[in-house]
Batch of 2 targets.
Target 1
Amino acid sequence: MTTDSASRTVRPGTFTPRRQVSHRPSASEGSVGRIPRTILSTPGNLGSARKYKSKLSIDARARVSHRPTSHLSPVLCTPPKNKSYDASRPKTPTTPRSRSRGAESPYPSDVPSEMDVTQVDPEEVLVDYKTVGAGDISGEIDEALLLQDRGKEDKVMVSIRIRPTTSPAAWEVTKGQPRGIKLFPQYGRSTLSSPPQFNFDEILTGSENKPVYNAVARSHVCAAMDGYNAVVFAYGQTASGKTFTLSGNEEQPGIIPRAMKDVFACIRRTPSREYLLRCSYLEIYNETIQDLLAPPSSTTSHIVEIHGSGSNVWLSPLREEVVTSLKGVREVLERGNANRRTATTNWNERSSRSHSVFRLVIESRERGESMGSAASGRSTPGPPRPPTPGGPRLQALGGRSVQMSALSLIDLAGSEKATSDRERTKEGKYINQSLLTLGTVIGTLADNAAKHKADYVPFRNSKLTRMLQPSLSGNARISVICTINPDTDAVGESTSTLSFAQRIKKVQLSAKKGELMDTEALLQRYRLEIEDLKKKLAEREAGSPAKPGQLSAQEKLEESKAMKDLSARIRQLTKLILTSQTVEEREASRPASPARVDFDMTPYQLQQELLAARREIETKSTQILSLEAALLARPELPPDAPEDSKDRHIAKQAKTIRELEIIVAGYEDHLGEPLRAVREDVEREWEVKLEKEAKLRREKEVWAEELVKQLEKERKMRNKLEEQGRVLAAFVNKFDALGLGSDAPHTPPRSKNTYEVFAERQKTKLGSFASSDDFSSNAVDSPMRLQLSHIKGHPNLLEQMPEEDPWNDLSFEVEVGGKENIRY
Ligand SMILES: Nc1ncnc2c1ncn2[C@@H]1O[C@H](COP(=O)(O)OP(=O)(O)OP(=O)(O)O)[C@@H](O)[C@H]1O
């Protein structure tokens, strides 16, 4: 066990029935006898008597002059020491103050830890709309304000707050959207280059804290109430107004007190949920994390360690206080602030010498029908579960899941120049170093986001960045308010603050709602899902008989697949429920395991536990195997078994049969039938398609046959023509051989001309002409030689004859081979 739990043993837990929370004295009230009344009666001392040495603007002065009690009034000179202030918030002496607070803390050393979260039953300290008193809320929340940055949820919201000044300002705010801030050219480093200009989500001026809260923090507070982690932090040069913005003072409450009011306002506006609120407050001083709420009497160290890595980081030992009212929160804040380290520096009368983190963990769940732990019933019997540092305390009951988120409000120490004081110089070195690391981390994250890289981010280089790792890595809505001093002698620091603001704007976020479920909640979710799925299945079933004709095969397939999916999911969920119930039954029937995990254990202890658990599992597995073998070897129930166990067995079997029947019926109804019908439809559709294709093919074959015939005809025709050509040539040669033509001077026509001879030959059936060789040898003297020479030079001339054959007019018939007459 850790020191934390050791300390728990000396602090008896005081449980108060939950319904009485609003009526019973709160932690602070309860200890009135021990805590000085002066402290309780000055709730607003969070930001009391803060001053800075530079002058305020005229309007700020005018405002404070109307309020003589305002803590902003004595700004024109170094403030006189304020006794009550000193008493409530001790300043750091020249060396860091001792952590044994008996002397310094306003709280006596025996302040009980009544609201320590480890000492109360969470079910007894829930807050809901009934328990929130009218004084706990800030009035109506403007819905429009909550919706303001909804569109920028994946980006860090970055705003600038310019502290009022009476000196000439080096910066001017540009008009329009996005809001810009520009350095007057005369204050730029070089007159040649244009002076820097920056654009941001908001640029705020003046001393009013309400508009600042509304603009930069309200939507983030509401996001935290909605289940998202949210971080608001102030960054800037020393004395630029970070603490004034975060904590403010009685006149001008800052972001923290306003946020707390809104938390309770939100609870009051949400009657359907109940909440468990717990807060912690720490500071990082000289790279050491100190618990600002640790009880002064505690002998244990106040040094808090960071455990875990990546997005799973937690702090331990860290005291968390349950708060049930605004008064309770205020008391916690006062106590923490009283322990914070501040000191007078050259620039700030009360400079924060550390980074402070106020964290509110919000757990909530739907309200049950009846209230109280007995009515709602714990899902796990026995004593409350061991505390989990940073983990859930509220249990998911009756299927109601628990939403868990954290709202972190961070006041960073301011960057500063060197000072003559050695102690301040050392602190300043640590402050500057951790701010530098924050800048590097932000720069790398921004670069990674812009260039889609995954470069190593040096979170571990400082406690601050390591602690902020889960949020900076993306799982939080972040709002940064950068405070600047507009004076001309702070241009360098302001420019560096604005560059940091510019870089952090590029960091990519993707906050997820934190939801926790226990077995019962999961089972309930499964049951609801099954109901829903069954309804859907029934609707589909009811709709499908009306549709079949209208659906295409594809649609039917999809419909069948959807039904199949639904049935599969129902089966899967039913199985999950049965498995979980069996596990739960077994859990309930056996004594609590001695190996139940205590989350306060050290990693070594956990490892040992793990080894022991593994060994036990092995032994149990062997036992199970042998038991199973024995079970198989004997009948389920001996014949002489008692009647009631027989009945139980029968009931169990009947239940299994019913389950199987449902599954089988579901399969048959929703899977078998539609599939068969679909298959038939598909087959029918394809048959028609096939027939069409076959017909088309037949038609094509006929066409192809026709084509072949046509070709054959053409080929024959061509052969015939060639044959005719040859016959004609032979005829002409013969004609010449008969001496009916010569190159000699024209002889008077003889008694028979060519046609007559031809006709005569035809008559005497001179069908067998001499071979072409014959007639070519005789062709020399042919009167048609001239024309033949043309033909010889162009063997294909006959083929190329124009369709309008001039020889047509000279047509005559000749008998070829005694078979048929050919017309020429
Ligand atoms: N906007 C403002 N209007 C009026 N007064 C302001 C404003 N901002 C800061 N101040 C005053 O300036 C002084 C210094 O402010 P504050 O302590 O908040 O600075 P800081 O940035 O937290 O400094 P450090 O980093 O040193 O802690 C305080 O007295 C505060 O009241």
Target 2
Amino acid sequence: MSAPSTPVDTVDPGGLAAALSALREGAPLVQCLTNVVVAQWTANTLLAAGASPVMVDNPQEARACAGVAGGVLVNVGTPQEETAAAMTEAVAGAAEAGTPWVLDPVGAGALAWRTRIAHDLLGRHAPAVIRGNASEILALDGGTGGKGVEGVDAAEDAMPAATALAHELGCVVAVSGRVDHVTDGERVVRVSNGSPLLTKVTGAGCALGALMAGFTAVVADRLVAATAATAVFTLAAEAAQRAARGPGSFAVALLDELDRLQPAAVADGVRLS
Ligand SMILES: Nc1ncnc2c1ncn2[C@@H]1O[C@H](COP(=O)(O)OP(=O)(O)OP(=O)(O)O)[C@@H](O)[C@H]1O
Ligand SMILES: Cc1ncsc1CCO
Ligand SMILES: [Mg+2]
């Protein structure tokens, strides 16, 4: 199947700005089952943007937490038996409560066990959003994956796979890269904001997935939610790049700029096609 190319219609800059206002007003609780590399930075990203993180990734509490959270992030970056069991529980809790959940299939394709975990979770209850780099999205559709957790494909090359997954699961698929591509299987939104420094710090994509879980808690249209997260994150990255001397100061500045970003600046600065 070829990728759809319907131009942006309902996803407009004003809607993305309104989504950021909704995130700040709602301050949703976002449960994160994420990897050990990025946990603290992910929590800080959510706080800076205006959401409320809680990193509950044990099988004893994950289901109950997903029942009360506004959104759930499941990121398979450093899976262990315990956290994999917790992911199953969290997805069950999300299914019971109708809580939107986001899958970040870190390293899918490159490593077999986590690829099976991702497929198993997808088979239990459809996520609101699958967010990954192009190689990870291709891997979920039968591809071979990237170089470890690094993507080696361009986002546009993953759009046939993203479209197929979106149709199969009834979810949004967000493919990150120089130009981020977001689709619900019918509509495609491209966001061309961002900074190359995002590829020089670990966990940018992981933090973006957490933001998507936050936006799905406050925005009903999941295409808008995933696009708003992308716009907010990449616009903050552009401002952070201006303040940074390199990856270290960039990562710190990105938190500052997420906190400072105003909804009007989202509407003014986002580059959609
Ligand atoms: N070449 C690039 N130029 C500018 N921005 C980029 C580039 N590649 C990725 N990005 C941005 O970096 C962020 C993370 O995307 P990326 O594709 O690197 O995710 P990822 O590989 O899943 O990251 P990680 O696994 O390290 O968390 C996105 O906001 C995306 O817009
Ligand atoms: C570096 C790394 N290894 C496993 S998860 C992770 C964070 C970026 O995906
Ligand atoms: Mg990733």
